[in-house]
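Case study B.
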Amino acid sequence: MRLVIELGRILAGATLVVITCMSLGRLLLIPVQNSLDAIERAALSFVLGAGLMSLIVFVLGVMGFVGPRTYLGLGAVTVVAAIFMRDRSAPSRVSQRSVPLTRSWYLVWAGVLFLFGGLYLVNAFAPEVSPDGSSYHLGLVSLYARANRIGPVPTNFYAGLSQGLEMLFLVAFVIGKHSAAALVHLVFLASLLGLVVSFGRRIGVLGLAFAAAILVAVSPVVGIDAISAYNDVALACIGFSCFFLLTLWEEMPTPWVAYLAGCMAGFCYGVKYSGVGAFALGPLLILLARKPVIDRSKAFAIGFFMLGAISIAIVWPIRNAIWYGNPLAPLYNSVFANGFVHISLEQQYREAMAHYGSLSSRWEIPLEITVLGFRLQGLLGPVFLLSPVALFSLRLKQGRRLLIAALLFSFPFSQNLGTRFLIPALAFIALAMMCSGIHRRIIYGVVLIHVFLSLPMITQFYCNPYAWRIRQLPWRAALHIDKKHDFERESISEWDAIAFLNLKTPPTTRVLGLSAFAYSYVEREVAVADATAIGENLRDVLWTAHNLALEPNKLVSFAVAPKITQVVRVHFDGPDAKAGWGINELHIYGPNGEITRNSKWLLSASPNANEVAYAFDNNPVTRWATWEAARKGMYVEVDLGRGEAVNEITILTNAESSILPIRTLTNSEKTVLSTSSDTSLRRAATAVIASKGFSYLFLRFDDPLASDLHDNAGLWRIAQVYSDPVWIIYRIDR
Amino acid sequence: MVTFTSTSLAMRIVTIGLTLAFISWMGQCAAPKRFPVPTQYSGNSRGNSDWSVQIVRFYKIPPEHPGTVLSGIQAGDETLPWRWTNHKAAFRFWPLLDTNATVELDISVADVTLAQTGPVTVTVLANNQQIGSERYARAGRYLLRYEVPMPSLPDRPLDLTLVVEPPWISPADHTDLGVILASVSVRFEKPTAGATR
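Model:
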């Protein structure tokens, strides 16, 4: 019975999303549905409806409507509307020009799809264990579901990304939890394949399109991504929908088709920032359209395309501007200064994504993304080493269109070298390969080799043992009959530690994770240090107390010629210093001693004005810092509220900052003094973390702070409450 | 002469108004944000308390409430709990308001210096006021303890200076050296708290 309920919930969650999307999509497709066949109708209505549904779910969530009742109500209304407004005409037949596929090849491709479909379905039903899916994709969804509201999450870097797909995951999650969300993602793969085949049928290459669809569908990285609560396959599907609608527009150049294509471009951005290239796809393909479409119509079409794109995408920049002070959060923080993400964090993130650490040369990329699959996290399959043959398709009009789309959707790969960042371009590349003019039988043979090489039991013989791919058929886990959670425990090392948090801590507990972990399974509020400005500041206070290099043991004193002044400013006055500059405490003295901080004082700084208070809170472990390279003119300023006699300014800081060229507004003599180490800093650090509401620390055994926390637990005022060979949990005692 | 219809005039007024509003908004965005002084952390050793002990010492495990070395301490082996002073060394401590202070110095006079300099005089000053002076003719470890009455402490850091006369010039690097210092501590204590403790 438990089995039926569990599987029923998963299926119900995913089905509700699919039905609601398709109902909404049907409404959008009414003006054009006579031009579509059954597969096109089904696939396009799902994808178009998904774009609209994600907007509706977001708006409802912000208004505080998150939960099964809301989503069942939404589903019911849309289904009723779709039934009332449905067109009873039969789907059109658009395959007149196609070269028919022989029965035997149909059977071969159907067999392949059945085999891999079963493999994917079992893995999607199994508990979500992917790194990003079990952490932030569903971690945020889980947070929204528990809060019954969608709101700002200033402790999570990824909360600033567009979350179009997470809105669909949310609907599935509140009913069927993690696996339901993964199933929704898998439906996007099915839709993508349907659209690829339909496109092939429209341009007269049905058999080759089938082969292209297989090439994409069985690719190991596509498989593992599709069965996870990720968004790359969804982006591929939405991007292809945009392309498909633009192809349809050539046959049926109405503003509505252009608008719908634009909506898909906007939804690409709404699902993942790297889909922004779809904005350029519309204008490019419309301008390249054949001549009978007159120029004025093209201009109108581009206008409607952009209108559609903006109408779907605009919600995310607006959300980010209001919640995070940066419409493009969590990126471009140097353009839109905000308190959400430090510039240095964004720089580190971009650096990490652009190089993936262990690559010694860009020449390693082709083999890594097609065969080895470890360092760039996934493999496309060795057959994709042949992808340059796609260039032969340039001689055909459709080939050129496909390659333009491939180029636009693969551009983000230059910024993020993860193999999965090529997934959105993969269908275009595969179709272009099919259109290269190579004999059909050779192509089919190559695709069959690809299928063979993509079988999990074969992949293991050539890829890196740690490559990100499907490894097994976890049917017991998929049926959710394994009460010991062996599958989860095997895939998520922190499973038992998470269970401890869920069982042994109060429901209102806030947990600070010093390492990333699968927090979507934690039924407590979690923030990961290093993830945003708040997390970095909390990590920084721990490091300040732990690391001699950051310890505030230098007192920089500026003896000022006695002067009445209302404004005291300390500024950076030298060449750029890459490591940045910080102030732990700033004190001002007059002839009669320290000028006591009071409510008339107004503090400001540039950059990071939001954190200037850290230099005036009497806590030596907190600090205002530039969090980027220090540049001439950066400052901290105090308006004393009235003229005061000032003759000394002191800055408590670390050794590195103390030797930087810091000046005061007035001429002064600078002296650097040393203070002894201070063990009370540890207590002060955990006091800061506790003051932010966190009562538990969650970390790995190899965290740089782990030894210090263990050896000096008393000084830190923490108590170890859980440990296993990998994970440790401390309670902060106040 | 240019004349405006009421409609175009209204449009212009609206346009100008919107432009001004936009410029004003942009100006607000560009203006530096200013913040009040935050709540003060009270767990600091120099917070609200009736007494406080601040120490300069050189153990591997540092003291909870440290003072500051201003000058005159030689670099040394970090594993050893003592350092050579120059003939003049200075330290800074932060008094609580309205407290007396008890200063303690843990020093050693070395044979090697006495052999060359003869008896040495160690003088201690608090904010440039002498609070004690000792003369040592024999090598050994000495604990100096002085009371600094409340009126002597201004509402400022307490700067202690240790002066050793005559200095010993190290033949190795010609540095002037004074005594071997293990610690300098100051106990700040409100008179009433001291009476009841």
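Chain A touches chain B at residues 555, 589, 592-594, 597-599, 601-606, 609-610, 612-614, 616-620, 622, 637, 639, 673-680, 683-684, 687-688 (CB under 8 Å). The remaining cases will be described in the next quarterly update.
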